[in-house]
């Protein structure tokens, strides 16, 4: 069952997307009071702008969120189609934060990502935090979880990490402030020499991180999509300020 059959025309997309984003930003104060801002916000936008698929809207929202949190500008194009849940891949194919480098390579390697790209994608952990009632893990990776930066790599290398003593799953805690956390998959990036060289490079050069993160995000968001548009049809969106 097709959930959204209205395609987004690349020739009119910039104007339509601009209108969509302005509307969403104007509603940000209302949406911020919601217990699940992202999901409810996107559902609200989808009702108002039915010409965009939910899949395109979700990826567009991610691109915009990264930019608004001072991250790189990520080229984006429409073309994803929503499908019935029966068409989805089975659960258990996403990375498990409790595992190690062999698991990371198995999960991402299956999708065509190499070591450098795995480390670059992991840099998204500069943003947000874990919630015990959702993943079981608890805490932020950085001191500024609403700002995209290379702090994730700097903290991995610069802080001392011990296992956290608590009733939750195995995770690490920084020795200094005891307010930050790292997952076993995060620590694997500095325990594996082939991963670590990229961690060290990104920790020293935030522009290299931004550039390579941008490219691998484009690859991730377009993975397996049967686009009818060309790569040169990708658009970049101006930040709100």
List the main descriptive attributes of the protein structure presented here.
241 residues, mainly alpha, Peroxidase, domain 2, three-stranded antiparallel sheet, two-stranded antiparallel sheet, 10 helices, disordered N terminus
How would you describe the overall organization of this protein?
α6 (115-122) packs across α9. The strands form two sheets. A three-stranded antiparallel β-sheet has the order 3-4-5. The protein has two domains: 13-80 and 225-233, no CATH class; 101-217, Peroxidase, domain 2, CATH 1.10.420.10. The model is unreliable at 1-14 and 24-35 (pLDDT under 50). The protein contains ten helices and five strands. The protein has helices at 13-26, 28-31, 37-48, 54-68, 101-110, 115-122, 151-158, 184-191, 193-204, 206-221, and strands spanning 129-130, 139-140, 161-163, 172-174, 181-182. It has 241 residues and is mainly alpha-helical.
Helix and strand layout, with pairings?
Elements (H helix, E strand, L loop, with lengths): L12 H14 L1 H4 L5 H12 L5 H15 L32 H10 L4 H8 L6 E2 L8 E2 L10 H8 L2 E3 L8 E3 L6 E2 L1 H8 L1 H12 L1 H16 L20
Antiparallel strand pairs: 1-2, 3-4, 4-5
